[in-house]
Design a protein that fits this description.
The chain has ten helices and four strands, in the order αββααββααααααα. It is of the alpha+beta class and 280 residues long. It has two domains: 117 residues, no CATH class; 132 residues, no CATH class. Strands 1-2-4-3 form a four-stranded antiparallel beta sheet. Helix 1 packs across helix 5 and helix 3 crosses helix 4.
Amino acid sequence: MKHEDIYVLNQKFESFVNELEDGLEFWCARDLQHLLWYSEWRNFVNIISKAKTAIESTGESISDHFVDINKMVEIGSGSKREVEDIMLTRYACYLIAMNGDNTKKEIAFAQQYFAVQTRKLELIEKRLLESERVEARGKLKETEKELSDVIYEQTKWEHNFALIRSKWDTALFQNTTQDMKNKWGITWAKPLADFMPTILLKAKDFATEITIHNARQHCMSTENDISNEHITNNTTVRNTLLERWIIPEELPPEEDLQKVSRRLQNEAKKWLKNQKKFSK
């Protein structure tokens, strides 16, 4: 396919993107029908049915990607009539293209176009989730430091925070810190929290915030009082997770956050470098 043809097709495909109020993008099946050079709606509906079957086979919900709607279209002389249409996600468009006749240049282009766009969105979502996890870990570090300061300020006791934290981990996981490291295959020198999924980082942070509040509110003056308070809060948070069918010690570990953080920083540097290059 010529470069000029690719450019024209890309412009056409981009021009038919619609956007909901919450920023979600969608395509109308009637528009896609014409972009892919299907003259008959009934023939195009057969391709849509195949795409729905493909969605179902992946375990995804059809209604998340195909939404039936009705809209008014002009039929000449200023009159209008209501026709059936379908709102499609990019992934739905990709599957429709994959089930089309790829001897048509429009469909061959659509297959590549939607594959690339879908992959871009997947990567963006992955980066957002990684950033959220890095942020949750940073927040937990700050909160635990604050709790460490509270213990010293109110008890005047030079404590070994790592030993105290292990008792709190036991309350959350029903396993010691070292037992969880063994379970997750983590070396002794690595922090357990660096391998926790986001939900556990936020759970630990929440329990710690409660402890800080109550330690100050009730003027707890011994390490034992504050430690018992934190054990209670971790146990309470654990029970809340269990009520929602989340078993902390059964969750799989995630990638080392040190590696994730470095990767995100490197990608940010590359992006800034490219921005400077293109702005010249």
